[in-house]
Task: structure prediction
Amino acid sequence: MRRVAKVGIGTLLLTGLLWAQGMGDKPPVIMAPVGNLQVKAGATKSVDLDFRIGSDFHINSHTPKSPLLIPTVLKLNAPEQVTVADLKYPTGQDVSFAFSPDEKLNVYSGDFTIDALLKVPANSRPGMYPVSGELRFQACDHSACYPPRSIPVQFQVTVVK
Amino acid sequence: MKRNAIVFVALTVAIMAMLASGKYLDRSRRHGPVKLLGDVHGVPAPDFTLSSLDGNRVKLSDFRGKAVLLNFWATWCPPCKVEMPWFEDLQKQYGKDGLVVLGVAMDDSEPTMIAKFANELGVNYPVLLGTDKVSEDYGDVQYLPTTFYIARDGTIVDKMTGLLDRKDIEDAVKKTLTTSYKPAGMQQNEASAGIHSAAVAAIAGADSAR
Result:
């Protein structure tokens, strides 16, 4: 009986915590953690940055079909020891939605990957260097849209000799 | 042992209350009191003064006595642009009965871009430039389109979020044109005395206290 009561209280507490921390504020896009990333000084390396869009949502691709639509854009700030040489965005899908069956929007949905090409100068000292930035996007579902927002993007690059 | 259980329960409840109140206070600190939450039916519509695309200052309470369709939209919202020509048609059809359509653009685009967008959709009703404050006053409008249907006495008849069927919108307009939450005599008295509803006064009081 006591155990049941404790489990009940625990569940209540967890529910309260989740509610209080604002589950409703959860972004419609999340980023998968980037694994251990080692790059030799003087070398280049391609990094897959994986994102997942909530099942009810889509976001504009990097190249939406109208200048009024807000594109998905990744901005990265790297330290001197690591250079972001290029970002390759995936091609979006042309999709018609129920709210506008005659118009096709170029969007991402489900999972998508942005390929970041990193260059490490030959004179970079070995060590761990953080790369940070943000992914800006604008999400809609089947009947409405959310304002543009950004999520943080962070990973570490380990430079080795 | 029983005492421990009581203390544990009390502690749990206290933690939950602190977390909940902390979240509310944090929100209040950042944004001030949110005016509309939960069921908004019959609640006084918060008054506002916003700039229109043609440079005029437009006050919601100036339309007291009219049924107002207040539509929050943005140029980056494809579902919003489906509704806007419908609103224009409804304005033409029900304007003579007292319907006023007001668009509120929740957009960072230049007003010229917003005007171009609205013109291309054939919109002739006033388009106002939205602010964070008006969004907050109307319950932190995030999800677009969001439309409030406001009765002649300034109370909210309905709130609709997301793109709906045109018929649903027209039904809401008809309901708004015929709904009043206050006795007709009271509206008359208020209008002749030139005073706003108690809620508008309360909102003004809250704003000055902020």
The interface with chain B takes residues 2, 5-6, 9, 12-13, 16-17, 19-22, 68-70, 97, 99-100, 103, 105, 138, 140-141, 143-148 of chain A (CB under 8 Å). The first strand of chain A starts at residue 29 and ends at 31. Confidence is low (pLDDT under 50) at residues 4-24 of chain A.
